[in-house]
Amino acid sequence: MRAVIYTGPSQVALADVPTPTVIDPTDAVVKVTLAGICGTDLHVVRGDFPGMERGAVVGHEFVGEVVEVGRDVRRVRRGQIVMASDFTACGQCGLCELGDHWHCTQRAFFGTGTSFGPALAGAQAEFVRVPFADTALAALPAGCSPEAALLIGDNLAAGWVAIERGCVRPGDCVVVVGGGAVGQLAALSAQAAGAGAVVLVEPNVDRRTFAQAQGSLAAHPDDAIGFVRQVTGEDGADVVVEAVGGNGPLDLALQLAGPAGRVVSVGAHAAAQWSFPVALAFRRELTVGFAIGDGIRLRRRLVRLVTGGALDPTVVIDVRGRLDDVPELYRRLSAQQCLKAVVSITA
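Structure (tokenized):
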């Protein structure tokens, strides 16, 4: 089959690789019809995370048709069109039962090498093997488009969990640092949750303009502190979402939070340490946390929000292509020449 593989730092290429098959009895094999390219993919191919080997298939966002199932698969069946989480979990352990699928000891993240668990081939390919298929996969619901389903599995789950962890209340001022796909979807999630004002902080003018067109306010990082003070009457934000990753964006997020503010980071972090401003956090009684979107736990709620019209995640998709286009789409995303790319794949 054809697939997108990692060939070295900041490099991907199309290649012919073996077609996956069922290995474990809880596996399924999915014929990928739609795949996404994510900011995490950019981190992976840049080498920000350890554990990627040359020749590994990349990508972790997909929708497709089930073509093979293991003997212990019960809920997923051949011929079914399915949406997927970006990682797998057993679905049976105590952590999974609590909804903490990310912390399952058998978790594996598609297309990221050994960065977040055992290596698992990615989904920017004609076929993908899905361990624990009954947990990682779900039937595509009526009224939910494949593009929306793809975003629910990762980007929207990450944006929504920030609002959930931040305990956003109606009328709150929510600031989102970072205008990539996750940041934009966090801003839309904040609006859906009833935030009084949503401010997106982003250096790229096109991404600020996009956020404004979707109902948020927008500011350049250099102007963000003054802008947020103006919006909040000097109070600062009730909730700040850091959606970039890295120490600098975290520092800015804490500066933007008002008294008793909640800061939630959903950006992908590679730095081993961060110098935490303890005195500032103490004076303002800040709460600081980190969260990873769990498409397994959140998919039912997010599907209802999408099919009920509360938010439309597909607005962030501004480029659509095919498998042959993927190397160029990586380049464009890395250069911030587009916001979100999805790829139609036919075997």
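The CA atoms of residues 322 and 343 lie 5 Å apart. The mean pLDDT is 96.
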